[in-house]
Each structure stands twice: as C-alpha cells, then as structure tokens.
TrEMBL record:
Organism: Azospirillum himalayense
Protein name stated in the entry: DUF6538 domain-containing protein
Keyword field: DNA integration, DNA recombination, DNA-binding
Domain of life of the organism encoding this protein: Bacteria
A UniProt-annotated Pfam family: DUF6538
Keyword tRNA processing: no
Keyword DNA-binding included in the entry's annotation: yes
Length: 509
C-alpha cells in the first residue's frame, strides 16, 4: 500500500506536504495520522480516502492565500480526521456487487521511498482525481481557542502565582495535554464534550504505565493501548496499566485547565466536562494499604547483599546510599537522587538536607519544601564524610553516577529501574514493596516509637492541617532540634551495624 506504514501493529497514513505549502501549515512537512486499524483491507480503503482528502486540503490552501496558519491547521483537522473515513467504512460493509463510490476507486500516485530535499510545485502535487472536487469551506469559527493555544500560558500562570510549587507539576501537566491532543486531536475547546472526557478517562485505564519510556511503547496513546491489549492478561510480558491515582491526576489537570480558561475570560463554558467523575479505590484498599512496608527479613537480606558487603560494595555510590537515606529519613527517591552537595547544610550545630525547588531541582508540592535533619545513624555510617569528599572534588551533584532518564529527565527513574532488577536478583522482590516503601516504613516505625505526629509530618513533607486544623497555618516552623529528636527515636528491626566504616558482618558488638 502506498502512503501507508505500520507501527506497533497499527497502520498509519503518511504523505509529504508540498514545499510551497509547508509554511501555510506552520512548518508542517508531512500529513501523518493513525488509520486506527490493524486490518490491511480497512487500512487500504482509509488511506485512499485520506489521499484524496489531502488533495482537497492542498487545493484549498492554494485557492485561499489569505487563510491564516491557525485556520489552515483547523481546516486540516476537519478534512483529515476520523470522519474522513466514515464513507470508506460504509463501503467496506456493502454487499458484494454493490456500487462503489468513484472517490474510492481512484488509484493514488506512487509514494516515493524517499522524498527529495526540494519539491517543485508541478511534481509535488499529482492532478486532482476529479475536476469536480471543490475546495472545502472552513467551518465557522466560534471564538473559542484551540486546546493547545493557551496551555503554556496556563502553566506559566500556575507557576507564577504559586498554585503549582514545582516544575514537576508543570511537566506532568504537559504530558497530560499531549495525551489529550493525541487521543482527541487539537480542536477548539468548546467542541469537546463530557463524552470526550469520559472516553479519555476510559482510555487512560488501558494505557501502560511505561508508555513513552519502554522501547516497545514509543507510539501514540492509541497505539500503546493496542499493544497492551494484544497481550494476554496472563502473559508475563503484559505491561502494568496506569493506576487510578495517575488517572485522577490526568483528569484533574484537564479540569484545572478548563477552570482556568473560564476564570481568565478565554471562554465561558456552561459546565466543566471533567467535573463529577468517580475514582474508585484501587483493589478496594485505602492508600495506606496499597503499598506494603519492608519486612525485617527483607531489609536484612537487602543490606547484607553484595551492594553493601564484600568486595563489590562501593561506599561512594548512589546504589549504596539511596536506600539507606530513604529508610532513615523517609525522603522521596527523587528528593534524594537530585541532591546537590550544597543542599547538605548546617545550622545550630545540626546538619540537614534542604529539600527545595531551584533550577533543575523539583519538589512534589509546597509542603515538600522542608529541612530534614541528618540522623545520628547516617552520621555514624559516614554520610557526612562522603559529602565533604564530593565538595573537595568540586562535584555539584551528590550522586554523579546517576543519569537523567525519561521525558522529565528524572534521576530517580534511572536508579529505580536498576533497583527493581537488583531486588529480583537477590530474592527480595515483592509486588507493592519498592523504594517508596522505605518512606512508609520510616513513618510507621517512627510513629510506633512515640514520635510526635506533627513533627513526623514536618519531616515527611506532609500537611499538618488534618492534625491541627486551621492552626496549621500558624505553625510556621518545626525546629530542627525537634525533628532530629523525633528521627533519633527510630527503632529498626534490623541491625545496620555492619555498615559502619571499617567493619565487616559479625565484627560489631
């Protein structure tokens, strides 16, 4: 089939935009869209119709030089969209011998294997299939902006006003908006309905967690859903799908964008199509039960494995320190992984981690910005000696062996994959128990030891409003001294004495 390629099992239509028209479409060099089918027969019909529809588009652009880029791209979406192949689908279902539309009987010009760098007007566009095909009239403009037009303005405003406290939230919102456009197209915002929102939510529930990151899931949202659907539910290779928590985050980002458009006068909506959705609890369990704690047995097996003892142990590596810091401080993986040497500070005789957003440093939310004392156990294990060593070497990052990974360039993602593989290798892998479980283990153990819950929430970077209500806004600062005393109450069920500098397992008392 000409002008058709196959990607991740799904057929796609591809056709080069003539060079003379590329600037009319904002620099777009190619018409490319999914045919949304894995059937060669259906793809053949749909691609032929899209070829003719692209001819109509090019003729319309030639016939109206005054058409703006925005209107031209809007026209393209109207012509080369899902509705374009409705007629083709009807033809496919016709009884044998029934009349076929002449539009679908036209054989398109061959698609060259490679496109030349420059294309002349005569060679770029084959003759129209029929002289009676008229250029389409642009759809009436309602005055509503295209979905993509104000997304960056929305993100910038949310950051400037402090409604979002970190670039991480901005990156997540961009990811949500990209998925929305992939799934429903970039239309004027008043064209989207509650049905669009519902369909998108259902599609998110079928989307693999590693979409865009796994080498097998580099396609569009629809393509990645199809890849996941083709695997048996019992297959060990079947990818995990998005959690309800992640689905809710995507829907909340869209809800917020709609509210922002209305509040700032960009368009007056009757209702927000993303309001009122229910988000069931995963597996019927509350959040506190969805991720298990580390058991004493698994902690012991972990910290007596080759990364911590024996000739392979590297006391300068992120692999050695990240789980220890996570267990002894309750800090999040990315908070630890992104640390700079300058983020380890000292005040009133107490060393502490400064968790904050600055440049390439990100935090989850406003409560995440905090000071976390370096506990007595971390000092005994030689952590501050490592910090001084890094500073003498003029290292900016505390963990120079970590590399950014993924669309949001997270350092924690690079480590997390390796930590999962390692846990499987040494036999301590359990579903629901991961690096983040160090955080829950720390919180549970320190509270069971009798620490003040308000101090614990301050250490963890959680809001205290659920404990002290309105009074939380007046609780400006929990002292480092109070935090450190609470952290030193931590009682582990596993002995880490063998990790003290210059000791081997069994040599401590």
């Amino acid at each position: 089939m000409q002008h058709v390629c196959r990607r991740a099992g799904t057929f796609h239509f591809r056709r080069r935009v003539p060079g003379r028209l590329q600037h009319r479409l904002g620099g777009l060099a190619e018409v490319y869209r999914s045919l949304e089918t894995s059937s060669p027969r259906v793809a053949a019909f749909r691609s032929r119709l899209l070829y003719l529809e692209s001819e109509r588009l090019f003729a319309a652009l030639d016939g109206d030089p005054a058409l703006s880029v925005e209107d031209a791209r809007h026209l393209m979406r109207d012509i080369i969209g899902p509705a374009a192949w409705v007629q083709a689908d009807l033809i496919i279902r016709r009884p044998v011998g029934a009349a076929v539309s002449p539009l679908l009987s036209v054989t398109p010009a061959p698609c060259p294997a490679t496109y030349p760098a420059q294309t002349t007007a005569a060679s770029a566009v084959p003759a129209l299939a029929s002289p009676t095909v008229a250029a389409p009239v642009p759809a009436p403009v309602s005055g509503a902006p295209l979905f993509s037009t104000l997304t960056e303005a929305h993100i910038a405003n949310m950051l400037e006003t402090g409604a979002w406290s970190s670039q991480q939230t901005a990156l997540q919102a961009r990811g949500t908006f990209r998925l929305w456009i992939e799934y429903h197209g970039d239309q004027q915002v008043d064209r989207y309905t509650r049905r669009h929102a519902s369909e998108f939510m259902k599609a998110l529930g079928k989307l693999p967690q590693l979409h865009g990151r796994s080498p097998h899931l580099k396609g569009t949202m629809r393509e990645n859903i199809e890849v996941a659907a083709q695997l048996s539910p019992r297959s060990i290779k079947r990818p995990k799908l998005l959690s309800m928590k992640t689905i809710k985050r995507h829907m909340s980002a869209l809800h917020g964008y709609w509210d922002w458009l209305r509040q700032h006068g960009h368009y007056e909506f009757d209702t927000n199509p993303f309001s009122g959705f229910d988000y069931p609890i995963a597996n019927g369990k509350p959040a506190s039960e969805q991720r298990a704690m580390w058991s004493d047995r698994d902690l012991n097996r972990l910290f007596t494995s080759r990364l911590w003892v024996g000739p392979g142990a590297d006391r300068r590596s992120a692999a050695f320190w990240l789980p220890i810091i996570g267990l002894l401080t309750g800090m999040r993986l990315e908070e630890i992984a992104q640390l700079h040497t300058s983020d380890i500070k000292k005040r009133d005789g107490i060393d502490f981690f400064l968790v904050h957003a600055d440049g390439d440093l990100r935090v989850k939310n406003a409560n995440s910005v905090r000071e976390v004392p370096v506990s007595g156990m971390l000092v005994a294990l030689g952590f501050l000696d490592l910090v001084e060593e890094r500073r003498r070497a003029r290292c900016k990052r505390l963990w120079p062996d970590l590399r950014p990974k993924g669309q949001d360039r997270r350092l924690g993602a690079y480590y997390s994959e390796r930590f999962t593989v390692y846990r499987r290798e040494i036999g301590v892998y359990r579903p629901g128990v991961d690096f983040h479980s160090f955080r829950g283990t720390f919180e549970t153990l320190i509270l069971n030891a009798g620490a003040n819950p308000v101090f614990v929430k301050a250490i963890m970077g959680h809001s205290t409003s659920d404990l002290i209500g309105e009074g939380s806004r007046y609780l400006k600062h929990i002292t480092l001294k109070n935090k450190l005393e609470a952290m030193n109450m931590l009682k582990l069920g596993v002995d880490l004495g063998h990790l003290l500098p210059n000791t081997e397992p069994g040599s401590h008392t």
